[in-house]
Specification:
Number of helices: 3
Largest sheet: 7 strands, antiparallel
Distance between the termini: 34 Å
Shape: globular
Radius of gyration: 14 Å
Length: 141
Amino acid sequence: MKTIIHFFHIHSQPAKVYTALTTEAGLSGWWTAMVTIEPLTPAVVHFRFAGDFNPDMQVTASEQDRRVEWKCISGHNNWKDNTFSFVLESTDGGTSLLFTQHYASELSDKVYGSYNFNWGWYLGSLKEYCEKGRGKPFSGS
């Protein structure tokens, strides 16, 4: 199976990046403006975009200021059972972030390429959100 990997530096402390990955306000500031978190054990995060792309992620691991992991449990067939990780490391007055998405089923190169491109866009939005206070989340318009 294929894996998408992105690695980059954010000029913000790990605590700010972690908050952007674990709260409704944070997630809606960079990925999609339509997000809700069910405070279950484990928590489930519902992301709403358009069409059939509305992934529901179960939080499978969370280590304050260091790591967040999700598993897609519903809402988008191509991502069902995929795992996602955000690993944060304090570096040079900021945060290095290693993002991975491991696919549970094989998809075409074009589909992987599309998801990889979109992750690049939205991870750039995460960087802007953490550094400047405003990202470019999907807003439905």
